[in-house]
Amino acid sequence: MSVLDLARPEIRTLQPYSSARMEAGGGQIMLNANESAWEPAGDVGLGCNRYPDPQPVALLQALASLYGVRREQLFVGRGSDEAIDLLVRAFCRAGQDAIVIQPPTFGMYAVGARIQDAGVIEVPLAEDFSLDISALLAAITPAVKLVFLCTPNNPSGKSISRVDVERVAQALAGRALLVVDEAYIEFSDQASVADLIEHYEHLAVLRTLSKAWALAGARIGSLIANPEVIGLIRRIMPPYPLPLPCVAAALAALSPSGQDAAREHIAIVREQRAVMRDALAGVAGVREVLPSDANFLAVRFDDAGAVYQRLLQAGIVVRDVRRYPKLQDALRITVGTPAENQRVLALLNSPAMDGRVFADGSA
Questions:
Q1: What are the pLDDT digits (tens) for 330-351?
Q2: What would you report as the CA-atom Rg of the chain, rounded to the nearest whole angstrom?
Q3: Which CATH number is 3-19+54-254's, of 3.40.640.10, 1.10.260.40, 3.40.30.10, 1.10.510.10?
């Protein structure tokens, strides 16, 4: 059985849109795409009057080298969100197929499925936010086409071991595509499972430059998968998903000096994560600081709502995750610069933030 047998048959036979840049490129006088012949003001040589390469070779090569995979195993799009959306559209028939997620987890898996009118089967994580493999596998039905695992998990920060990922991959062979979201893997001691794609054709991995590589505003995300899956995704991708300025920013970040800077910042985040974890554990009103392999900490408070508002009033914005299952008393705090982290700690340790009585007399 081919992994493409899991995909929608109408997508497998779809004649993809052939853009002008796909059909011809590299000429000296470009008159095939109805572009402007003049560069816009302030273009600084990017050539934004021309459509970009749909899948820039230089960027694919840089990412393939970074992730230790082959170029034909890569699709690059507008953040991981685009890859999630395209996977759901390629594999899930509206009103018939489904995905499996493990809440609490990244919300875009379910959003992508519901936009496609695909079912969403929830298999909650265990109380310690570990993966319940038995329950997960018991939930797999013939309708399930995609299973999403987030490691390190957002919003808890807990990782899934390589052994557990491989166990799930073995069980899903011929049944569903396993999609492992590694958006925060650079902050973890665990290595990527992308190399397992060579052994499991139904395994796919999501990576992003938004977090560790400081390019959230550029929206560069990757799908690493079997070349057949990548080919299928390229059939339904938008004609020109990657703006030239974003590609330029990504190539700069992936240059030798850019990689050195990113790794320096990753080391600072990991160090500061430990500092924040220990310091937050001693703050009055803090119930628990969840272990995290990511660039954030999920923190339980006696009154998370009041803490959130007080931080906000001081100009500090954290993520209110109380709507997530098992996190109804928690806030997610990103690890910032050492100065930003100290500001958060100073405010949380101030008399007005003792978790019981504030300066204005409110509880």
A1: 999 999 999 999 999 999 999 8
A2: 22
A3: 3.40.640.10
Q: What pairs with residue 148 in β-bridges?
A: 179
* Cα 169 from Cα 148, distance rounded (Å): 11
| Predicted pLDDT of residue 356 | 44
Token representation of residue 281: 């554990």
* 73 neighbors 225 (Cβ within 8 angstroms): yes
In this predicted model, what pLDDT tens digit does every residue of 173-193 receive, in sequence order? 999 999 999 999 999 999 999
Answer yes or no: are the C-beta atoms of 302 and 277 closer than 8 Å.
Answer: no
- Give the pair of three-digit tokens for residue 111: 């959003």
Compute the distance between CA of residue 237 and CA of residue 145 in angstroms, rounded to an integer.
19
159-176 per-residue burial string, b: 16 or more CB within 10 A, e: under 16: bbeeebbbebbeebeebb
Q: What is the mean pLDDT of the chain?
A: 94
Model pTM above 0.85: yes
Contact 308, 331 (CB under 8 A): yes
